[in-house]
Amino acid sequence: MARIYSWIITCFKFYLNGVKFHADFIGFGIPILDINMQGSFTIGKRFRFNSGKYHAMGGRQQQCYFVAAKGGQLIIGDNVGVTSIALICHNKISIGNNVKIGINTVIYDTDFHSLDARMRNSYPERLDGVKSKPVIIHDGAFIGGHTTILKGVTIGKNAIVGAGSVVFESIPDEQVWAGNPARYIRDNYVYETA
Question: Keyword set for this entry (predicted)?
């Protein structure tokens, strides 16, 4: 019943926020959406999400947050699975096909605040010079839980990001990175099953 209830309420929220989505998604829990009328959010086929403390039993549970500010483009490809994530998009966040993103991961394509203390501390706060750059996650990437991905990052095809990492530079295809800050660990070897 929870899955059916989640699906109905989420469809309604998607519709009210102008989200382009496929009805084959599976959702446990209700996401939080804030899609500006001049922003966009597109979801591919077979999207799966777990949102909230009763549907994400991995610790530090939160609802999924999907935010696209004015001019922001939030794009999720086919067969993507996420748990209790926050995608905050002021420019562009693009997630490819067959991507898995672990619990409590946050992806920000903006600094939110000016790095100039005079702007940041003015009242009301001035947003002059606040920088935003696209975040691109290519097909097959796997992002471990509790990871932070910052603006301007590209994560390559089939790359793996270890849990708890802070990623502020791009990761090439087929590599494993981890740490704070995230650093190269090894190549991502493909293991054949017998």
Answer: Acyltransferase, Repeat, Transferase
Residue 194 in domain: no
The closest alpha carbon to 171, from 142, 132, 131, 133, belongs to 142
By the 8 A CB rule, do 85 and 107 touch?
A: yes
* Tokens matching residue 19: 């989200």
Q: Which domain holds residue 18?
A: 2-187
Antiparallel, parallel or unpaired: β 175-178 and 183-187: antiparallel
Task: Please check whether residue 149 lies inside any domain of the structure.
Answer: yes
The DSSP letter of residue 105 is -
Residue-level length of the chain: 194
Catalytic residue numbers, as ranges: 113
**At CA 71, angle to CA 27 and CA 117, rounded to 5?**
105
b/e per residue 105-138 (b: at least 16 CB within 10 A): bbbbbbbeebeeeeebeeeeeeeeebebeebbbb
Q: What is the CATH number of the domain that holds 137?
A: 2.160.10.10
Is-contact 190 173, C-beta < 8 A?
A: no
Distance CA 155, CA 11 (A): 29
Q: Would 26 be classed as within a structural domain?
A: yes
Domain count, the chain: 1
Q: pTM for the complete prediction? A: 0.92
Q: Is residue 142 part of a domain?
A: yes
Provide the 8-state DSSP code for 189. P
